[in-house]
Amino acid sequence: MPASGPPGEAMDGERARTVEEAAAHRPGRWLVPALVILLVAFSALSLMLGPARLTPAAVMDGLLGNGGVAVVVRDIRLPRTLLAIIIGATLGLAGAALQGLLRNPLAAPSVFGAPQAAALGAVVVIYFGYAEVYSPALPLAAIAASFLSVLVVILVAGESASLVVLVLAGLAISSLAGAATSLAISLSPNAFAVTEIVFWLMGSLEDRTMRHVALVSPFALVGAALLLSQGGALRTLALGEEAARSLGVDVRLLRLAIVTGVAVGVGASVAVAGTIGFVGLVAPHIVRPLVGHDPRRTLVPAALAGAVLLTAADCAVRVIPSASEVKVGVLTAIVGVPFFLYIILRRRAELAGAPA
Amino acid sequence: MTGLPLSVRGVAARLGGRQVLDGVDLTLAPGSLTAIIGPNGAGKTTLMRVMAGLVRPAAGTVLLGERLLASLPARERARAIAYLPQGGSVAWPLPAADVVALGRVPHGGGPATGRTDPAVSRAMRATDSEAFADRPVTALSGGERARVLLARALAVEAPVLICDEPVAALDPRHQLAVMGVLADEARRGRAVAVVMHDLALAARYADRVAILASGKLVAAGTPQAVLTPAILADVFGVHALHEERPDGLLVLPWRPLAPGSV
Hints:
The complex is a heterodimer.
Chain A: H1 7-11, H2 31-48, H3 56-63, H4 70-102, H5 114-127, H6 137-157, H7 163-186, H8 191-201, H9 210-228, H10 231-236, H11 241-246, H12 251-273, H13 279-287, H14 295-319, H15 328-346, H16 348-353
Chain B: E1 6-15, E2 18-28, E3 32-37, H1 44-51, E4 59-64, E5 67-68, H2 74-80, E6 81-84, H3 96-101, H4 111-114, H5 118-126, H6 142-155, E7 160-164, H7 172-187, E8 191-195, H8 199-205, E9 208-213, E10 216-221, H9 223-226, H10 229-236, E11 238-245, E12 248-256
Parallel strand pairs in B: 3-8, 3-9, 6-7, 7-8
Antiparallel strand pairs in B: 1-2, 1-4, 4-5, 9-10, 11-12
Helix pairs in contact in B: 5-6
């Protein structure tokens, strides 16, 4: 038998703050209700804004099918608002899930080139004339391409996924997708195809119909279900892959579910709205400190925050004075890229320390 | 939940084309702390990963009690074997108590219920980490973080506990304290394996010592039988001070031996 040693008494001893007392400090109970209220407010605003500004009362009338504004509200602004909510939520959730999987706050669909790859997938389909705009071939091609891009980045970055490797791999993928898309444009046989392709490059929610909503919804739901199913595993993964596996987490299944969920959601979103970047990067970042950095409890608030951000951005493009409407994908990039730089700035020490 | 031996029989493992384990036989007995020592690159970590069920051996079997480890569902295995990887880090600034509560995941628990889970409180008390229960784990010192991660492994309350270098980041006082905790866990009936480099701690706290060198088990037995000057010279190339004291064995590496003098 070993000597009993000094430890026993050294490690006991009463502490003023017990583990139980700490339970009172759970953050973020108010977060989801607050985000829902914000989302409702911006959705209402989104139904009111446009070339003709409507009062809340007129919007209510229109939604109920009364009055002359019913067509404007129900057929033009409602699909646009619904798409902003669905796609914003999809992007926010996808970003939170990827950040959890890679244990890295710089991970996001757009950093991986997933939207660019999805756009390429859609462009290829349009270019070869395989599909008209409402065909499911478009989202399927976009999903396949974004699946491939996320998978390649994850495989290249490897399990440790240092910031530098991750960002470089994503840069390579989006450059490749961008170049291939440019090639498709320059080889385009006619001006109509060029117009169609340019449509994918500048994400927008303008002139969408309920058919677009119907097209994206099932994919968004499946993707969200896949991502949300892995919440517990993502949380355990905070300890690293080895420890997570020792706690019974199937890391391979986790990785497959996240990559598939992200590809399905982001791919379908790009298929109906083009590339809208950086919502997936920003949304989880805003909510994470408010939920105690728990990867599982980040998921739903990140989805809500994404929906709020995109709905708000889509309202903003309608009030920014310009000759033609600013594309919402351009706006999210203009806001998102400085944010991305800001995160890099804050983690500069870590980046500098990362092995080249 | 106590009283399950874990044994490996003729285990071999390859890593990137290199043979890292070769015909290793070892049993972790309930109620016993086994120190696994050996030079760098001897295969200690791989052996721990094989025993934890995280790596399938290229040959040989791993038995938990009388059952093949490979045949166990992941969750059952996770309840039976707690594994503390080497130099672990936590990706997010989670509160320390939530990190410890992750040890309850195989039992259906986790951070949501962790604050009221007695196993979490016990583990934090045992590792003297209650004082920073609410602090972000990423803001802790290396030693504090190591204790929180050990508490996470203890919170599983598994019959088998495997720790890969749990004292590497600790100051002397906490090295002794943590080894004492692990010895206590063994005395409660668990089978405990600890990879370590500190021969003095191995001599003082281990019931059994197993020495790995170049993927082979070269010696296993009581510290008195295994940590002999001859074996230490042979395996590590060091001359060690060696003294039987009334309260235990003192082994202290003293100077390297010249190459070829072994």
